[in-house]
Specification:
Shape: extended
Strand content: 5-15%
Strand order of the largest sheet: 1-2
Oligomer: single chain
Largest sheet: 2 strands, parallel
Structural class: alpha+beta
Number of strands: 2
Radius of gyration: 20 Å
Amino acid sequence: MKAKEKHLALERLLSGETQIAIGTHALIQESVRFKNLALAVVDEQHRFGVVQRNLLREKGNLPDVLVMTATPIPRSLALTLYGDLDVSVINQLPPGRKPIQTHWYEEKHRQRLLRQFGQQLMPDIRST
């Protein structure tokens, strides 16, 4: 973000005009303040330590913190064992989920691929 955009985003978080923020560790910086932080969702929690989770908690009035990981590392298991974390296990795919397909293309096909991909994302927009 440019400085002006960032300043405006920070003001909106503080005023409550922006109610959902998605970001990186930048959200725990001292300059980022929330009007009423009620929920924080942390993905890949093993990369987000105890100190960082506490910083998030301090930004609200005891907000709920949902931490997610697909990696059952010993630290996560220990936090669960000692009562710092509750565990929910998702052991099946959501209904209707399509299988993941991986494709490889040579560089010479890049523009064609980008056009096709754009049409899949926004079918109402015609490519030029």
